[in-house]
Write a structure and sequence with these properties.
This protein has about 80 residues and is α+β, with helices and mostly antiparallel strands. Helix content is about 40%, strand content about 30%. It has a single domain, classed as BolA-like (GMP Synthetase, Chain A, domain 3), CATH 3.30.300. Strands 1-2-3 form a 3-stranded mixed β-sheet. β1 (about 20-25) and β2 form a beta hairpin. It starts with a helix and ends with a helix.
């Protein structure tokens, strides 16, 4: 998978989010900024993002994904 493919998958499930993905060789970093994370713990934020790419993780297409999940206020 490419960073662009992962970015598109996350963005399609979280259309209000700003998504940036970097990396390669099955190991990626996704920086996701969304109002949907407001009031959620870090674990719940990560679960929201992992749910977007669950099929790719299950199939083995996506090996490792590090997630940085922030609200717009936290990004500023």
């Amino acid at each position: 998978m490419t960073p662009e493919q992962i970015q598109q998958i996350i963005a399609s499930h979280m259309p209000d989010a700003a998504v940036e993905v970097s990396g390669g060789d099955g190991k990626f970093i996704a920086e996701v900024t969304s109002d949907a994370f407001e009031g959620l713990t870090s674990i719940k934020r990560h679960k929201l993002v992992y749910a977007c790419v669950n099929d790719e993780i299950t199939s083995g297409e996506l090996h490792a994904l590090t997630i940085v999940a922030r609200t717009p206020a936290e990004r500023a």
